[in-house]
Amino acid sequence: MLSLSFTPLVPWPVLVGFGVLAVILAVVAVLARGRTALLRAVALGLVIAALANPSLVREDRDPVKDVAAIVVDRSGSQSLGDRPAMTDAVKAELERRFGALANIEPRFIEVGDAQGGEGDDGTKLFTALTQALADVPPERIAGVVMLTDGVVHDIPASLEALGLKAPLHVLVTGRPDERDRQIKMLEAPRFGIVGRDVTLRGEVMERGGTGTATVTVRRDGEEIDRQSIATGVPFSLTTHIEHGGPNVVEIEVEPLPGELTTVNNRAVLPIEGIREKLRVLLVSGEPHQGERTWRNLLKSDASVDLVHFTILRPPEKQDGTPISELSLIAFPTRELFVQKIKDFDLIIFDRYANQSVLPSAYFDNIARYVREGGALLIAAGPEFAGPASLARTRLASILPGDPSMKVVEQPFKATLTETGHRHPVTRALPGSEANPPAWGDWLRIVSAQTRPGVQPILSGANGLPLLALSREEKGRVALMLSDQAWLWARGYQQGGPYLDLLRRLAHWLMKEPALEEEALRAQTTGRGREVRVERQTMAEEAGPVTITGPTGKERSLDLSKAETGLFTATFEAEGLGLHTIRSGNLVAFVSVGPANPRELADVFSDTDRLKGVADGSGGTVRRVAAAGGGIEVPRLQITRGGRLGGADWIGFRPSDSATIRGVEVYPLGIGLWALVALAAAVLAMWLVEGRRGRAA
């Protein structure tokens, strides 16, 4: 390729000034002397040309292909209906047609959901486009094709705002007659008080629907409500918070016949159940060294509301002191064990002996309270082995063990039993990994025999049961056969994990979900869509769990042993939404991604969202769905001017870019030739003007 180049010997402003001056002088000379002054103008022109230093430049160029970016939307909304098949068919046809264009290099860019962590950014096609073309000069971009349903969430004001000057052509999948129904939550609390109701507000939206829909409400997989509501109108629902921890509430609206997707027909709301206050009644039968251990432990827990009574003056103590002179508070037995017994989450008898303080009917009330869902803890001392033992009252039917009327007083180390190694109350207690356990001795234990079916989780001297747990219908009972836990609290022989043990024990009795013997839990790990599954069991092995995704697809997952009694595994969720994990009769729920994904908030294919930016670039927007059910892909055409799209074609603008392999320069304004031309011009001017002078 041959071209003319200038490399001035003086700065361009100076050269332009000389040129202007030369023109003025030439005009004045022509006006004063006539046509003979043209030779002076030619001479001045040659001087200016010499100063401009012109050169002929010959370049050896290799043409470079322009780049056409084809952005293929693979987001969640593009997986609906026949859009995946439509997208694949259009992409394959574009690959074939671009292969026939000699000077265009197609660059296909696959884009999925733009998600990270807990966020939900939707579809980011333009972000992916700028990242994929970062290595391409803007002038080499001949055009951009976006194959999408139009549900895009990062649309710029114009392509020029992204530094691109190419036309944008949008090929829209989906069909204009799509119908869908979805549920949108307007008010959904994240927390709720256990035992109380929370109110949820939502709205069912539809296109091509019937105007009414049936809404089903489930809590932890169990249906709790079903009602018919009007679509397009906000509605309210109430649900009861049954337990602490996650209460997964699922609201589902019935699908329309032939609707686009049922994924957005369901809203998942994990509501964290919080106990307002755990009310604990602690009854100490007599003052002793371990009494303050229980009191301090329970008072240190901000979630516990403690009521504590110590029996200082039993009824049989008759010393003649007038009642009006006693400073002791009377034990309100009727108020506590008849009127308000159901207000307590846990009742603790700490070294309590049956001293006729509580009538037999009150023990019946306590047993009934446990069977109806209450919790009872007996922290026994020597009195438990005597005739005043609580095991000789009407509580005997619910106690995990029966004393053998013997107290063993010798140093011993509390030891986890085989069951205790698996039970969440004692599993992995600090120090239990050593043999013998790395904690201090206890000095006394009450000999007892556990009931059939009850396995102690801690044993003491001579293998006697130290801590036994049992379930009584809806309630729970714990029996600790020693009053020596205070030795750990006081640091005797380096002490022991009394806080871990007693706090876990109390929370197990009050049905803390994390301390269930048989439990299945699932939660996201925070790394993309990864989910961690935990299976707590008292069995030797845990079988595989079944995972059901939002679309109803099932798969099996094997668990591996993390520690004794605990089995875990992780899996990658295949989609957003509620996943159900089952192991036998245990069910766990985990919501992957946001409760109401932005990508599925509006699933209808749309030709209007991208029309503004496409029109501004000179491109086009069109659907690829044909009337007969097939697809229509426009022709690809190279155009150097005018329109960039028509009824059945889309255009790409070439740049004629090339790679320069070599350059040859031929100077025109310096050297001998320039000197000869300038001398000839001066000589001609002198001869002509000399003749005119002689003639005059």
Automatic annotation (TrEMBL):
Designated name of the protein: Glutamine amidotransferase domain-containing protein
Keywords annotated in UniProt: Membrane, Transmembrane, Transmembrane helix
UniProt cross-references to InterPro entries, sorted A to Z: Class_I_gatase-like
Entry superkingdom: Bacteria
Residues passing through the membrane, by range: 12-31, 38-57, 665-688
